[in-house]
Amino acid sequence: MEYGLWSILPPLVAIFLAITTKQVFISLILGIFSGTLILNDWQLFVSINATLEEIVLVFSEGWITKTIIFSFLVGGLITVISASGGVQGFINYLTEKKDLVKDKKGALLLAYITGLVIFIESSITSLVAGTVARPLTDKYNVSREKLAYVCDSTSAPVCGLIPLNGWGAMLMGVIGVQIANGVVDGTAAGLLVRSLPFQFYSIIAIIAVGYYIMTGNDWGPMKKAEKRASEKGLLLREGATPMVSEEATATPPKEGVTPNMWNMILPLLILILMMPISLYITGDGNILQGSGSTSVFWAVITSVTFAGFLYVLGGIMSLKEYIDYVYQGIGAIVPVAILLITAFAIGNVIGYLETGQYMAALVEGRVSGAFGPAMIFLMASLMAFSTGTSWGTFGIMMPIGIQMAVAMGAPLYPTIGAVVSGGIMGDHCSPISDTTIISSMASASDHIDHVNTQLPYALLNGAFALVLYLAAGFIF
Q1: Residue 268 included in any domain
Q2: Sign of the four-CA dihedral 241, 251, 64, 287
Q3: Pfam families attached here (predicted)?
């Protein structure tokens, strides 16, 4: 059955409400409800029941359930690592090596490198990079805005490009819905890996941060902030209100624990190494054919189990304390898991209504499929800017983007990359983004000052990415 113009109602409802209310969960629920209304001929009570059933049906797919469990356990792992003193130990190790940092450039490079190597979760990336580098950037009169920019622009881009984390699980999940619905063929892991070179904004953003650190060629509001800090020693603008990092940090170390960076490094190494091993095993020797959901599931269970043995047998905490910290972390991740569930559900509803095919039909014969990646990049960027969430953007835009790519004949891998890059680009520009807020906290910067100084850089990077998506559309 063709639903025509009605097929675009659910994503429009979700996007409009997310923009106006800033409540992504409620917006997604109402987006799902509007879709079930259409599917059930506008029968109110039938549609209410169908909405609830659609959410429950998400768990009928084993790979989705594994992805959600992964998200819960990653929350537990992050909390127990923090409680073990692992994060604090890593911070202490880097800050004690002050002889390695002798100037402003070195202090910023410390934040930059930390942001590149800690890719387990974007918030943790920003918090660790800011906390590690801030004493040194303050010493060498680096503006807090510049530190916030480095933290922010090496968090989400790195997590997107190295998807051995919750980001990878989320993206493989929303891609997997389209595979399960028969829109595209292949495996979620394979499609995601092949799209990584087309995450143009993320790649440009990381390169740009390194360029500004090495050359000092800042411009716009950032140049003024750096001039203020270097000439007057004012790390913050007069009258600015710093956001204190302690408000955003993870669980503090357990009382009496001696901070040790290996308590963080070893469990994370196990998590990271288990990903390719699991993909190899589930893919019968071919990593790209492996099951992404099973791999992240195995990896996080192995890492959490290893951490338990490491901390309990090492006398860092009792078994009860370890379990309590894991539960605490699982509880903290509930909002993310709810977002995942509703994102999967609205992806299914959008698939039933064939929203992407309808949108592609609107431009078919009028707009070449070669423009598909650029169009999707702009749409995802606008949505992420308006809502402040890249993950919510992925949940809505990935099914639309993939369906449009198939219907328009647009290149698939650049389109998937455009969804991810657009979500991250809009997130970097948005004052209501959680990663933007956390980066302000980690650097103790005034939040609006961080947004104002980063925005021109993000827009320029986005313009370069848009040109590349236009080129990719015609070349691939």
Answers
A1: yes
A2: positive
A3: Na_H_antiporter
